[in-house]
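Practice problem 4.
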């Protein structure tokens, strides 16, 4: 590698151009590099032979004496031109230059007559196609329009806008289109300004909105927007995606046209023009898209490299543009074709050349092209070859050891063996591409290598290189051998009991099984030696039902996978159906139809049962409440037996009548004295101790809110529950004040609340 200055490279490449009919055309091409360098030209891929019309100058440029769009023989000087440069190291092709003839068509849109009221907006338009893009100017009454007038706006695409119309704006207008090919005039149109400025309110209205534009970076975009209304609407711009438009390179032409200078890819988007009525939210909108394209350019150029024979060379070429460019590789000016040792990756951005040899030494070019333009970059591959390198290793042999192992052996080279520092064994599946190859290093005294972890029933290719400190030998002859076949691995087996006579065997497919043709299923009663089977199942089957089994014995189920190399190891499971039978006896199956009929007829019974249950709960609650009252009265009766003298049975009967009392109406008929008498009688029958009085107070307070229920409780307590023990009456203790025990008892109110 002699350095960058020695590389064959273009200093000047031909560029796109527009040629004038019958005028000379020069396409430039200048190259540097190690001489001698030969330059030739092509048009549309065909070599150009020097002639009177087109020939190459001494500096390598192409000269066309009289450019013609169409010649007498039907040929044309239009097309794509490129120059090729070649020296001892290779051939280089320039970018393609697109040459077109300058033209101008007739106007396909002419200005139209218009009548507009004073203060309004007038718009004239004319359109014409041409190469290069024609420059359009406007004339009024045969004189150029005064562009210094702020009310007059001329847009690049042939549009004239006049705002705030006045009477002096009336006149005859036409446009003039000019380029290097021709000059043309449009038809005339009359503008009439009528009446005076109207004060009638008019909603905002956009007369003309922005068009969809596709331009290239660094060009200028003009988005038109002209609106009318009374009062005059305010025109504003925004992007539909919400991003700010920015201020750099942004200018407003006239009353609302948006001009963006020095376009970049970031300016692409949808632009919205809005016409707002001043002081309100009344608005009208129109939108147009702007697409900015960028010619292809390189982010990373390929670099020239030098590599020893047998190694790998990699070139990287990264390009950007809008739209994204397509990348093509050339080798010495010809389209590069991929092969086993030449691969393109990453959308052609990476070129890899494996096991390079002298024939791969060349100039490699990366061409990046999109609709906005193209570019090229080149790099040279130098293949290093040192004198005195070893000759290729001899007698390479490969022998199959097992399904996953192959032993490779070889003999040392015939020449230049003293400097050998080791060998490298290159291994690859025969069906894989070259880039999938891998290597294993071996010491210089070893002439065999055991290659393990291979795949069964697979072909592999092997070759050897001898290495010295100055480089590698050429590759030995390639030998191909296949590994042995292998029986499949054990499948996983699961047994599920379906019923008393059927089980289901299921297994899971797995890549660990390896290559297999199918499965074999066996089963037997454990006390027998003979299996039923094999049942042959396809490789995609994962379940099988075994039927007509005897529920009283245990079964053995065996499953294995097989292929052309034999049967694999089997998986064995044992299963018993006895538990299923026992569960069936203990839990006989239901008669669903009968149950359904029973369900239909039992609805009424369920409802009746619910009512009966609720009624029972209510009676239980009442019973508990009444029983509590009864236990209270029983306690008082027992205390009377233990602490007071007994009274005659006739008096007890009378007392019982008082306790069981009469009805509410009888008690209501009594006077106050009668009630006090009943109370005194109760106190006499049941004298209370201080602790008992507190209990009675608690009971009375707890039941004071349900006096009517207490009456029912007292009236329903049977007198037979009170047992009285006959004893000799003891004299009652006398009160110091001579009062009776009843007088010491607190007043508990009516008897029914006691």
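Answer key:
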């Amino acid at each position: 590698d002699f350095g960058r200055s020695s590389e064959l490279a273009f200093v000047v490449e031909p560029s796109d151009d527009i040629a004038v009919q019958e005028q000379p055309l020069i396409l430039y091409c200048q190259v540097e590099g190690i001489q001698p360098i030969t330059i030739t030209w092509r048009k549309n891929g065909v070599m150009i032979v020097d002639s009177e019309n087109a020939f190459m100058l001494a500096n390598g440029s192409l000269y066309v004496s009289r450019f013609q769009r169409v010649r007498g023989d039907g040929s044309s000087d239009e097309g794509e031109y490129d120059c090729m440069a070649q020296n001892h190291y290779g051939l280089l092709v320039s970018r393609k230059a697109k040459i077109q003839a300058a033209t101008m068509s007739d106007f396909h849109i002419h200005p139209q007559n218009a009548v507009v009221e004073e203060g309004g907006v007038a718009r004239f338009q004319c359109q014409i196609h041409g190469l290069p893009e024609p420059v359009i100017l406007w004339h009024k009454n045969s004189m150029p329009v005064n562009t210094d007038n702020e009310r007059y706006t001329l847009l690049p695409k042939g549009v004239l806008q006049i705002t705030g119309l006045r009477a002096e704006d009336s006149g005859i207008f036409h446009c003039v289109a000019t380029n290097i090919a021709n000059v043309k005039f449009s038809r005339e149109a009359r503008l009439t300004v009528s009446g005076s400025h109207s004060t009638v309110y008019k909603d905002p209205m956009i007369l003309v909105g922005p068009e969809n534009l596709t331009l290239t970076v660094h060009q200028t975009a003009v988005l038109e927007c002209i609106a009318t209304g009374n009062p005059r609407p305010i025109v504003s711009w925004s992007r539909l995606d919400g991003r700010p438009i920015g201020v750099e390179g942004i200018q407003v032409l006239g009353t609302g046209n948006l001009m963006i200078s020095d376009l970049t890819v970031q300016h692409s988007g949808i632009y919205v023009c809005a016409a707002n009525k001043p002081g309100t939210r009344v608005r009208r909108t129109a939108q147009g898209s702007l697409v900015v394209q960028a010619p292809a350019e390189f982010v990373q150029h390929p670099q020239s490299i030098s590599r020893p024979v047998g190694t790998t060379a990699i070139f990287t070429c990264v390009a950007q543009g809008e739209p994204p460019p397509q990348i093509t590789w050339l080798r010495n000016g010809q389209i590069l074709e991929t092969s086993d040792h030449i691969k393109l990756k990453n959308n052609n951005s990476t070129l890899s050349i494996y096991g390079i040899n002298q024939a791969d030494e060349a100039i490699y070019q990366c061409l990046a092209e999109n609709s906005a333009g193209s570019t090229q970059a080149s790099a040279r591959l130098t293949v290093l070859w040192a004198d005195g390198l070893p000759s290729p290793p001899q007698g390479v042999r490969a022998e199959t050891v097992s399904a996953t192992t192959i032993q490779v052996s070889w003999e040392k080279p015939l020449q230049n063996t003293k400097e050998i520092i080791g060998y490298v064994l290159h291994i690859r599946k025969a069906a894989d591409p070259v880039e999938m190859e891998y290597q294993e290093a071996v010491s210089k005294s070893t002439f065999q290598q055991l290659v393990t972890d291979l795949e069964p029933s697979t072909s592999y290719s092997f070759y050897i290189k001898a290495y010295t400190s100055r480089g590698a030998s050429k590759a030995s002859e390639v030998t191909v051998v296949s590994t042995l076949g292998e029986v499949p691995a054990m499948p996983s087996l699961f047994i599920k009991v379906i019923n008393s006579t059927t089980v289901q065997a299921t297994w899971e497919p797995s890549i660990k099984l390896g290559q297999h043709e199918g499965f074999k299923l066996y089963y037997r009663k454990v006390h027998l030696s003979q299996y039923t089977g094999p049942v042959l199942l396809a490789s995609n089957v994962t379940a099988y039902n075994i039927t007509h089994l005897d529920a009283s014995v245990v079964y053995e189920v065996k499953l294995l996978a097989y292929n052309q190399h034999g049967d694999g190891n089997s998986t064995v499971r044992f299963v018993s159906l006895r538990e299923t039978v026992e569960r069936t006896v203990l839990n006989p199956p239901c008669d669903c139809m009968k149950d359904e009929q029973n369900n239909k007829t039992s609805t009424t019974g369920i409802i009746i049962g619910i009512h009966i249950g609720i009624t029972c709960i209510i009676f239980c609650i009442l019973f508990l409440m009444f029983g509590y009252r009864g236990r209270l009265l029983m306690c008082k009766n027992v205390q009377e037996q233990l602490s007071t003298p007994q009274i005659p049975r006739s008096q007890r009967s009378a007392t019982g009548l008082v306790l069981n009392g009469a009805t509410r109406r009888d008690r209501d008929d009594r006077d106050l004295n009668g009630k006090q008498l009943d109370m005194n009688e109760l106190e006499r029958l049941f004298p209370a101790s201080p602790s008992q009085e507190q209990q009675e107070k608690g009971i009375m307070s707890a039941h004071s809110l349900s006096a009517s229920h207490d009456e029912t409780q007292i009236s329903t307590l049977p007198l037979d529950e009170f047992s009285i023990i006959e004893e000799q009456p003891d004299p009652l203790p006398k009160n110091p004040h001579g009062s009776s025990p009843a007088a010491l008892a607190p007043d508990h109110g009516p008897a029914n609340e006691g």
